Structures
1.
Amino acid sequence: MRPTDLGALRASPWAARGGRRVADELRANLIERLRAGATVFPGLLGYEDTVVPQVVNAVLSRHHFILLGLRGQAKTRLLRSLTGLLDPEVPVIAGAELPDDPLAPVTVEGQALVAEAGDATPVGWLPREARYVEKLATPDVTVADLIGDIDPIKAAKLGTQLGDPRAIHYGLLPRANRGVFAVNELPDLASKVQVALFNVMQEGDVQIKGYPLRLPLDVVLVFSANPEDYTARGKIITPLKDRIGSEVRTHYPRTVAEGMAVTAQEAWLARDTGVRLPSFVAEAVEEVAFQARDDARVDKHAGVSQRLPITLLEAVASNAERRMLASGAPALARVSDLYAALAAVTGKLELEYEGELKGGEAIAREVVRRAIGQTLTRRLGATPVDEVVAWFDEDRSLRVPDGVGGADALGLYAAVPGLLGAARAVAEGDGPDDVAVAAEFVLEGLVARRAIARSEERGYLAADPELVAGGAPRRRWN
């Protein structure tokens, strides 16, 4: 039974925790989790050996810290995961405007309530989810939004001076007392707001409209920012930067396999239509993000969010569903579905000037084509495809209508020597549909590698021996 008044709370095991600050609470629960060998931040893939150890060090050091990284690097998710290191619930003074520890109140109101009611002071219980407060920084955020402002009406009702803390209408940060306060995109805050933040962090005071006020809050502040903005002159004031204990750099997945694990975790693929995604299709989707991040026409300072492969994979699955619902074809995604899902790519690429001249859709199409070619290179390994290329070089072409699948498609693909052998080397099943989808993957990969070509009229055909579309030199398969 949880205590409901201060007297009962003092007689309970909670009395031993009275006055423990949030930073100590996070540290104690983290130590317990590390000793038990439990995962510190479940669901954060790819950060186990890089970001997580640095965040652990920051928490063990009782630091305020900042995550520096480009968009789509799970910064917000990591900050929100800190709630898992808080106690399931903590006692607060019931009826007080701000969450305050009944055993060690820090606010003027909390101290007054305890002094007046003594052991009869009512106690409420605050769950860990309510102890995390988050704010997205924008240039129009004011000191009043984050810290508070003087409320003349409140002062008149209480009969106090304007400089009395009881006359303050509190902002988000004081309301996060006894918890974690997160600010995303910190450099977007105006300088005077940043000054108010570091005053609260270090000195526990703030000036509101010329009135100095003590705010000895018990709160851990965490931030996120783009590295470019955080280091640029004028974006972040030096005193605030100096008071942030640790700077932790986040990153995109380092390998395609790592990225695939993140995308599979986040993408919505549990469709009631039973659509299937071959792993080489999922790999090509992930490779799109890697190719885009390496493309000189894509803005490196903006980055390519991990949301790109997540939404692209969902769109690929949806295109396979649409094909199945329209024609009764098997609900099996094909690598060509990536081209039908370009809408999930174009909006996530911030282009440089050269890229803007060419256009977002053209850049996205090139990135997808390169991704398919790179995926085929990895998947085929030493499997030969020279026989396939040679067949097209003899001025032959192959056209497979959209509605054809399964055994009918295999009959068409069988006309190309070596194609079905290469397809079976990458297929994930022996069924006609699995092999047919794999055969299309091989052909699309050869097109991407410029070993063969594709046109709307003739389908797959020999590549120009001198030039390919766009004037680039032909690259033969090897």
2.
Amino acid sequence: MSDWAIDLGGIVLRGVADEEPLSLPRALIFPGADPALMARAAMLDPLSVDTATDSVLLRVQVFVIEAFGRTIIVDGGVGDDKERPARPSWHRRRTDFLARLGVAPAAVTAMLFTHLHADHVGWATRLVDGRWVPTFPRARHIVAAREFAHWAALDAVAPVGHGCFRDSVLPLVEAGLLDQVADDHAPFPGMRFRPLPGHSPGQVGILLTGTRRRVLIAADALHHPAQLLAPALCSGFCTDAALAVATRQALLDEAADDGLTLVPHHARSRALWDITRRDGAFSLRGDDTNGPII
């Protein structure tokens, strides 16, 4: 999927790839998942599975929101120059991502974090003269207090998340740019945090309500179309598997019953997921559901 944009009515949402694809062994991201399930998931999204290598293929993206004269970033991708030796494709990267983002860093009003994993915070900072400094120096960086407290407590004992808390989050604190808020916070008109705990304790989605359409940036409550077919399928990266499954099931029920459009962070061939349910099984509506891509 190339970079994309949609006009929700007064709110324009864009997705800009930071890494595509991110290839992970099936046994790593979905331990114990049946290969036959992954083959069925490939029917929903042929770009989401590499059967030749038994791998799951994801997209790492950063969202840009233009609304009411503001430019807002949601999540921070992987970032450049980070020390990530355990994940070679992330280690000491040099990319053109900031140029492709199409936004001057000083023009960004705010950066919203759905959660604080390494592939969601990296571009919050960049390396300048050997120091990690905020990439968006005028932006308020907003995170659920519960999420921050969880990772801060763990990182006080030993580095967590490939070291991302120390190189991508703490510099924001030191610069006085990080705000901790309730996990139902409404940062701007037409936007509200939506608690989606389980994958991480304080994970939130971002609900966007435009005059034409309402969508939820669903973070990692859904990683992959296989989880439509089997909502109990849990990522190996989830903090609380049982809670993650309960959150996902409730979210899919709501999307199917109420028409809430989901924007999973790692979706590949479709940016927007309109969920259907038949005989208790979830799926995606036809290819025309992405709406007015601009």
3.
Amino acid sequence: MTQTIAQINNVTHRYKGAALNSLDSVSLSVKRGETLLLCGASGSGKTSVIRLLNGLIPHYYHGDVTGEVTVNGHDIARTALYELAGVVGTVFQNPRSQFFSVDTDGEVVFGPENIGLSPDEILSRKKTVCRKMHLDNLLGRSLFELSGGEKQRIACASVAALLPDIILLDEPSSNLDMESMKMLHDIIAEWKNQGKTIVISEHRLWYIKDLADRVICMDKGRIIREWSAEDFAGLSPEDTAKLKLRPTNINKHYLALLSDNNKNDSFCQITDGIHLKDFYFSYHQKPYIFRKKKYSASDGDTLSLCIPELTVPKGKIIAVIGSNGTGKSTFLRCVCGLEKDCTGVIVSEDREYRKNKRIGFSYMVMQDVNHQLFTDSVEKEVLLSMKDKDEKRCHKILDDLGLLEFKDTHPMALSGGQKQRVAIASAIAAGAELLLFDEPTSGLDYSHMKKVGVLLRKLAENGSTVLVSTHDPEFIEECCDCTLKIRNGRAVSFTV
């Protein structure tokens, strides 16, 4: 009989300051060596289950909790977090929240150093983990220079270096490109072959379905369905949609479109729209004495962004695609004026927008939305973005995004997907002519992804132009009109 390694018995939990329970009478057994997939809508309780298993509830996230949790013989309520370091490893949805070092090498070895392993053992683990996870190109770099997907890979490596019995992953693919998702799949497969117990909270189901032994579906803090891997793989798109789940299969056309192995680049020239001219930027600017160097296309490989000229159609949703670290976020930041050293001019309807003026012309939702949540309630956050405060319009936007019931909740008390929707609501409220979104659906379930698509479509129909950096094939199929591929900071393909 397979031994149980983790047991949750009749747990009810409510975060401090929250109006609703995050978990409601949840009981769950996890078998040793099992790969368990948790799915369900945003805010359904998946992350709270992860936090029960790693001890963050109740030791870090305080609130009201009843019931018992046992992990590998440890009573979680009576076990200090440091005692679980070699037992449970967690890869969080936002990898920044678990970094302790400033460089990649230091982050990978931090865990083994922290538990007092010998230098030889530490270096051996680092070498093995980096080889298996193909991290050679990320070593020796600052964590602050990495893309979201690259940070996620380093977070996985830092957990793997501890060799824990149980590995927990909370939305691990949310910021990954197609190639990185394949690598993540292979990493999890390797852990599975090693006999690790793996619990994955995930919205993107298609890449992981072949590795799961069992699938649990949650809704409103309760476990509502359970499937074997075979039964889950047989669910139709209609079945998953009813449960607010993303489909288990993806249109191959969009997978190929997002793959960096697809080198069939083509450029459809647009003559009428928003014109971008002379966008040049480098993260490695040389020191200057008398005046700042003005970059041009002739600076070649020294540039992080090099787009001499580009026209995008007005009133359309353009998916900005490309692999992790290739310059998509840099492109968006430069377009909206956040990178002060970026040259470039936007021309729209014979008006020029340079540097600071681009900030008023555009509005950007960042990849890590925690950077742009400032107030103490969801309602105030959305009102803050409005030039003319309109409470009725604010409530309509929140209702469209399924957030109205949280209008008085502090944004930082929400789940990752809910925070993402708050930031999107703020962008919609701003009413800028050019709206920029950096991975807006990374933490969203199927129904909320569709809602975001509907709202972006309404914005486009009302005349706004929307640029969306995304790795999400379902979202592109749902609502995008065009695709702009960025490779090494260059616009290499534009398709309509």
4.
Amino acid sequence: METFFPKNFFEGNRSRLSKLFIGTAPILITANGLIQSGGDNTLPFKQDASFWYLTGLDIPDAVLVIDKNQEYLIVPSRSVTRQNFDGAIDPDYIKARSGINEIYDEKAGWAKLKGRIKKVKHVATLPAPKPYLETFGFYTNPARANLNLKLKNLNPNLKFLDLTQQLTKMRSIKQPEELRAIAKAIDITIKSLNKACSAKSLKTAKNEYEIEATLTFNMRRLGADGHGFEPIVAGGPNATTLHNTSNDSPIKPGELLLIDCGALVEHYTADLTRTYGVNATKRQRDIYASVKEVQEFGINLLKPGLSLKDYEQEVENFMGEQLRELGLIKSINRENVRKYYPHATSHFLGLNVHDIGDYNQPLAPGNVLTVEPGIYIREEGIGIRIEDDVLITPSGNKLLSKKLAKNL
């Protein structure tokens, strides 16, 4: 299968990480583990983005070891029964894909690592998140915590060095291979949206799931691996809930339809939003025009050296002016603006839809961000968002999704 990512992409990433990490401690990065869905079934596997970035592998529970001039993988052993269900792990494929030639099963790999861990004071790795993140209301993958526990059992005095800063610096500046994958994902998303949201489709669709099904069919037909995240197809008041992914309500005449989706291509996702209306009212058109104006204002600001904190404040102030003109607020302050515009304008994009990036650092060429202002008026049942994907260039920015029309 043709790929945007030959093995030298992953070899180069491991080499750069070794150079950015100045210390002599072993580097250990774990893959994600499988999560139970129910009974003996699992949720669809989603690899840890940094592990994939360094190896190109979608194997659960594997561990990458980079120690001095040596690198190897520890891969989990699979019983014959599990091989029958999930397939066998192919060492030849691992070598060809990742460029890592030393591969050990779990028993041999940890036997090799054990002596080294008992002698060192530090190991460089990624920190384990809390088991449950209350802000988002979900449980986290336990793979990193399990790795740290296993290491601590070998050496109770072991201390962990955090590689987040190094991997953030690397992953936030997209390489040519990554930009090609993102461009392909964007192209597929645009074509799929145009199919799903043609004038005929919007007039004949009776339910949100019909639009979602058409999106899914066309994304796969055009070569995507699927969706980069759960798509949002939200009609009328459903669009005032930012992450409404149920997509199962009737599409009613006179209501707007907000669609937020992104095709997935070799782990890289697009993230585009459009709001559509058939015979939109003047009020709906006025609100849409305001969102569009705010988005154009935000895109024009983006350039190297820009502080994202300052950028978000400028966009918020400009949004305040639009909200006041629409009669939604009387005075511009954060509380009033956030009532109708409760989210940030931009986030980094790449291996994750909300990708890793340092929001405290100035923007740099190679950053890829979304620009997605929106206005959400619960009392009127109107939610409008417009989102595009933008690459920061040495001279300013490039709108990656310019081929997707912005007509209501």
